[in-house]
Fold:
Amino acid sequence: MKPVLNLRQIEAFRAVMLTGSVVGAARLMSVTQPGVSRTIGLMELRIGYSLFERRGRRLVPTPEAEALYREIETLYGSIERISQVAQDIRFQRAGALRVATLPALAQWLVPRAIARFLSSRPNVTVFVQSLPSRQIAELVSTRQFDVGIVELPLSRPAIEIEPLEPVPSMAVMPAGHRLASKRQISLKDLDGERMVMLSQHSFVRYQMDEAFSTLGVAPNVVLETPSSSIACALVAAGAGITLVSKWTAVPFAGPDLVVRPVKEAIASRHAIIFPQVASRMLLSDAFAKDLREEIRISDQD
Structure:
């Protein structure tokens, strides 16, 4: 039968090795000297060999004790590392975060928020993936992702939804277009224009169609896509004009494309979602805070 050592015996042995005496070990462990002596004695009985030789007031470790101590120090090093990691996790200095985001927000806003989040957390790792809202909700609800950024409206059990501020729509068009010189675009300006529109199943497309109908405007829809990023890329290729949220449009602005605010109140609605659990992951809350801060800064631009 293998000898069995308990943690108290290992702790007492390590304390004697560190201090060189029973007195020092007792002081280090905040116990009595006889208690340390009994523990070491029982440990020697269980393992079947002596650990120390007494020389005056000091205890000199045997070669066997030295070999055992090297193994124990490796164990304690791991324990101390675990303790440090536990503190790092408490203060969001370490750990891992899984983020799922809409493709429309994966080009600019979410990467900026992740960079902000990681800038003060060098030991944290992030896995990020771009997916449709319904799939994000499903994966977050089953805790395969810690946090998601989705488009509203959305209904799904087992998730917590925190809406973000509505995002105004922007018109994206080639720099040489006749409307590019205008500081603001009205939907009335788009009557008869070649348009790249979001797919009809999206809520923002429903808003756009309602607004066009109310104003009696008939845009020439030549292309449809579920991805606002693809819509902007099509505009860059010369396919027409598109209407997308500010968060999607901003990274496309440049010498060849212009981005202009839309006069009519058409807004995209988004939310941060979390798994519905008793206690939310601290890193998730920290990331959500940084995302909201990035939104606040972008709104000032």
In short: The chain has a mean pLDDT of 88. The chain has three domains: 7-90, 94-165+269-300, 168-267. DSSP finds ten helices and 13 strands in the chain.
